[in-house]
Design goal:
The chain is 38% helix and 17% strand. It is an alpha/beta fold. A hairpin with a 4-residue loop joins strand 15 and strand 16. The longest helix is centred in the first third of the chain and has 22 residues.
């Protein structure tokens, strides 16, 4: 008698990886996609985009990863993850972990298709009906930022990240000429921007006082300090923002020094989020176990894929820390699709960042997720529900772009 489970998932020969290729395309911005195919003709897609360092990951995949994939069983996801992580002497880092993530997500996509199940069901089923998301509202000044928050509320968002200009600075972080996205990688060589902490610390509390006065308490408000503050400065800002009840203050100070978050905690109860630049569970272990943060922002594409991020989420759940995945336009719809399935399952989900991709990106990456009533809803297609139109992708060649840098007004290098 045939085994239904083995039929659903295919035989080991059916699951054998026979081809894998890297696709680099720039439909509005650069993306790197890994496509893995099995002997039975099932393919899976994984995102391998690392903003400003895309070709480094592409080369890592082509020269070091793909030769080791051919002939492997696509169903042995855990073993493959361990092979590329534990089997390597040089571990972690953004290039390595982004490459591993691309493999991992592609294999989960294949497994879902062979089992004829959406990814969230493979993970354990739904914990919620929809995924709360936040959009990005920004403006050159408080007036413009306030109007933009209102626009997002009118579009149905229940949560909005707000950033505004700093007087005297031409190009502060988070303020963009684009209104539905913020893409900082604009030039072939890094753009040099100016930063003033005193000016920033003065205007941000004024912005959120205005937002609460104008838009009330129903909308959740978030803010990103983008690693710009010393711990004592971050503590001051977090305390000054307490009356305005932020959903979170993100990246208040560089997480290279976890003790900095302990100082913030001693002075404020504003919720803290960090981790979009983290690559492994080891980056977040001290912060989570010390309850120094409330949301962990590690993203599937930069933290080793679903297999590894699931471990991070499980660790976080033990300490009542919730997820708040990075979701800017520097990750492709492939990662967004995978993240939404993960968010739908994760019992300690908190919120998902959602920056809308441009029309060209959505055409290159057809997907079945949708936005409705302030939430994103993953689809029911087998796998993660996102594919890539390779013919269309070929029309958008790679365009070199790097992230900016920041300097203080006296010319000193600062954290960007």
């Amino acid at each position: 008698m045939a085994n239904p489970q083995s039929e659903a998932h295919g035989s080991s020969r059916d699951r054998e990886i026979v081809a894998a290729r890297v696709i680099v395309t720039c439909p509005g911005r650069n993306f790197v996609t890994l496509k893995i195919e099995t002997r039975s003709g099932v393919f899976g897609a994984g995102d391998a985009t690392l903003n400003g360092r895309e070709l480094a990951v592409a080369a890592y995949l082509e020269h070091h990863v793909i030769p080791n994939l051919i002939g492997r069983d696509a169903g042995r996801i855990e073993d493959t993850w361990q092979f590329f992580y534990r089997g390597a002497y040089w571990r972690r880092g953004p290039v390595t972990m982004t490459a591993i993530a691309a493999v991992d997500v592609a294999l989960w996509d294949i497994l879902g298709k062979m089992a004829a199940m959406p990814l969230y069901r493979l993970l354990g089923g739904r914990s919620r009906d929809g995924v709360l998301v936040y959009g990005h509202a920004n403006g050159r000044d408080i007036e413009e930022a306030t109007a933009e928050v209102g626009r997002y509320i009118s579009l149905g968002y229940r949560a909005v990240r707000a950033q505004c200009g700093v007087p005297g600075l031409k190009k502060p972080y988070g303020v963009s000429r684009l209104k539905d996205a913020y893409e900082p990688a604009e030039s072939e060589l890094p753009l040099e921007t100016e930063w003033s902490t005193p000016g920033y610390l003065e205007i941000v509390p004024k912005l959120f006082a205005r937002l609460r006065a104008e838009h009330g308490n129903e909308v959740e408000l978030l803010h990103d300090a983008h690693h710009r503050l010393m711990p004592v400065e971050a503590a001051r800002l977090a305390r000054d923002l307490e009356p305005h009840r932020l959903f979170w203050l993100e990246d208040a100070t560089p997480a290279d020094n976890p003790d900095g978050f302990e100082l913030i905690r001693r002075h404020s109860v504003t919720p803290l989020a960090v981790g979009e630049v983290f690559n492994s569970i080891w980056d977040s272990k001290r912060l989570i176990e010390g309850r120094l943060i409330d949301f962990i922002r590690s993203t599937i594409v930069h933290a080793g894929g679903i297999t590894h991020v699931r471990r991070i989420a499980d660790l976080a759940a033990m300490y009542q820390v919730r997820t708040g995945f990075h979701g800017a336009t520097d990750l492709s719809p492939v990662t967004m699709g995978a993240a939404l399935h993960f968010d739908t399952w994760a019992p300690n989900f908190g919120i998902q960042e959602y920056m809308r991709h441009c029309e060209q990106t959505d055409e290159v990456f057809p997907h079945d997720y949708l936005f409705r009533d302030g939430r994103l809803h993953c689809g029911e297609s087998p796998g993660h529900g996102v594919s890539i139109d390779e013919k269309l992708a070929a029309r958008f060649p790679y365009s070199p772009k790097q992230l900016p840098i920041a300097r203080l007004e006296d010319g000193s290098m600062w954290d960007w």
